[in-house]
């Protein structure tokens, strides 16, 4: 289970769900592949620069490889997505550091710049994505117009790909049913409540603290009540400082986990007693950000990957992982969302909180100053 992803949130209206290696000498640059239009592949802003999708596919197959990073196979169905891409195009996907953080992705790109091992693409949380847009290559996929404006950069630097809700997962065979955030302070949960990551770095953890803050009277503008709740949780001995994984859940080491709903829901297939609660009155939604490394060693394959992720096939594969693909509403209206997976997308009746970039920046600064002291 990926334990350190920064929260991805749309800055405008939310779609209600009705979300290293060390430095080394750079390798000698390879000659740049020219597209059909004469544009350098690294500077192509759409498939049209390759003469269309077939031209892009041909250029990507010549490169033969794609480097991805921080994509666990059990996160958003990335295992199946990677396999489907490899099978469809015959391009080898090199998946590095699957459990890395968003910031690790950026660090890897900086440290490996000029090397064939550098990441070609990024899947980032909001704070890290918006702080590093200068590293992204603008590109608009063929279905660009089908993606709501609130979920993409107008110039194509980034686009939201999938999202979900923050939740509380618990093993009903080991703890009493969790009906609210306040339940977690009860003595029955002593040493049993885990948070997916460090909220100063991890998207799941950040959103978890925000969800708790809402339950305690806070808001996206005031995350302090969430930090104070975790202080109480720690003082009571209920907070378990262990990053949860499928292994810790299935072994019983982390019987209560605050994490994205699609990750908690995935455990129900392996552990029948595992249940998932999305607090309906304190729903927190978030989207992740997809972008191309402007220094991608495989620029055509990177662009073909984006086309695949946002195609009907790629979006349905996301949905099969229990996340909400960014094109879900339009695909549903057009009859393109696979009915067998549409039911896996959670529905929350009522508003969901999605922090703006400014709110996220403010909350991140507060966490940096207060989180470590709060949990001791």
Automatic annotation (TrEMBL):
Keywords: Signal. Residues 1-18 form the signal peptide. The keyword Signal applies. Residues 26-47 are annotated as: Disordered. One of its GO terms (cellular component) is outer membrane-bounded periplasmic space. The keyword Signal applies. GO terms for molecular function: thiamine binding; thiamine pyrophosphate binding. One of its GO terms (biological process) is thiamine transport. Pfam families: SBP_bac_6. PANTHER family: ABC TRANSPORTER SUBSTRATE-BINDING PROTEIN, THIAMINE-BINDING PERIPLASMIC PROTEIN-RELATED. This is ABC transporter substrate-binding protein.
């Amino acid at each position: 289970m990926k334990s350190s992803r920064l929260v991805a949130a749309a800055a405008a209206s939310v779609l209600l769900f009705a979300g290293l290696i060390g430095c080394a000498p750079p390798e000698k640059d390879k000659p740049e592949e020219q597209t059909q239009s004469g544009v350098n592949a690294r500077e192509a802003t759409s498939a049209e620069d390759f003469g269309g999708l077939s031209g892009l596919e041909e250029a990507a197959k010549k490169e033969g490889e794609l480097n991805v990073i921080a994509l666990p196979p059990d996160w958003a169905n990335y295992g199946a997505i990677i396999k489907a891409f490899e099978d469809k195009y015959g391009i080898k996907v090199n998946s590095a550091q699957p459990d890395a953080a968003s910031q690790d992705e950026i660090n890897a790109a900086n440290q490996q710049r000029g090397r064939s091992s550098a990441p070609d693409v990024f899947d980032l949380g909001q704070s890290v994505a918006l702080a590093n847009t200068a590293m992204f290559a603008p590109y608009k996929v063929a279905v660009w117009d089908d993606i709501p404006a609130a979920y993409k950069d107008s110039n194509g630097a980034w686009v939201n790909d999938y999202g979900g809700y923050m939740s509380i997962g618990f093993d009903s065979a080991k703890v009493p049913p969790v009906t609210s955030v306040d339940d977690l302070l009860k003595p029955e949960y002593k040493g049993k409540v885990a948070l997916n990551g460090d909220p100063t770095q991890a998207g799941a953890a950040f959103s978890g603290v925000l969800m708790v803050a809402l339950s305690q009277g806070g808001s996206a503008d005031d995350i302090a009540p969430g930090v104070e709740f975790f202080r109480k949780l720690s003082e009571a001995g209920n907070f378990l400082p262990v990053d949860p994984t499928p292994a810790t859940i299935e072994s019983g080491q982390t019987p209560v986990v605050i994490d994205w709903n699609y990750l908690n829901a995935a455990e129900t297939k392996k552990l029948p007693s595992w249940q998932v609660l999305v607090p309906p009155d304190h729903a927190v939604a978030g989207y992740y950000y997809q972008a191309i490394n402007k220094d991608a060693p495989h620029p055509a394959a990177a662009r073909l990957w984006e086309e695949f992720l946002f195609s009907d096939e790629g979006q349905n594969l996301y949905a099969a992982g229990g996340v909400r693909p960014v094109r879900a509403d339009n695909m549903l209206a057009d009859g393109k969302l696979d009915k067998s997976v549409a039911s896996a997308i959670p529905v929350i009746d009522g508003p969901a909180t999605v922090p703006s970039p400014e709110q996220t920046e403010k909350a991140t600064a507060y966490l940096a100053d207060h989180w470590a002291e709060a949990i001791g």
